[in-house]
Design brief:
It is a single chain. The chain has about 210 residues and is mainly alpha-helical. It has one domain. Helices cover about 40% and strands about 5% of the residues. The chain is built from eleven helices and four strands; from the N terminus they run αβαβααααβαααααβ. The chain has a two-stranded antiparallel ribbon with strand order 1-4. Strands 2-3 form a two-stranded antiparallel sheet. Helix 5 packs across helix 9. The relative contact order is 0.26.
Amino acid sequence: MPSFMQAAITAVANSSSARNCSQARRDSRSIPSATHLPLLPHPTFMKTLLSSISPRKHYQQYYRTREANSDMWKAPRGVHVFLRAHYHFESADWKGNQPFRLSAFTASELAKMPTYYIMERGKGMVETAAEQMPSAEEVAARKWLPDKELSVYADDFARTGFQGGLQLYRGAVGRNAELEMFSGRTIDVPACFISGKSDWGVYALGQ
């Protein structure tokens, strides 16, 4: 069964927005320092960082909570509807996804991101995604991840839950000694980083 992360990657890979590819530059900007790469920031750091824009929270904070699995697994309208809303909200089909480069990894800059990334503190991902549920006409017109394909993921997650995928956010917290071995290094061979042009992730690091 694909994990929650694998399902997300598959959905993005199948979308028309994930087609931009560029060769990494052979200089010090080719790869951020591992010690400054906030992919999985420590929860205490995130709590402090976002305190000035309360009541908001980073989505990774939510995924680390005990209730995250049951919230999504037992979504009131079912897993399929939750995933449909979730993927729509994070895709280029949602008109609000017009990402831009943040000036720094700070609370005030993070607050500019959509609520699926910097969530309202009192809401889970199901409630967050439900606010942007696409219409029946939008779903019918979609060529990427149609209902038949989405059902493959939804049926599996409805059977097993999301616990396995969520473990990533609980286990990889704070500094990573193995990654820090590469701090300051560059990618010195031709390389390609693929990201959807409407994906906020590549803009969220203040790079």
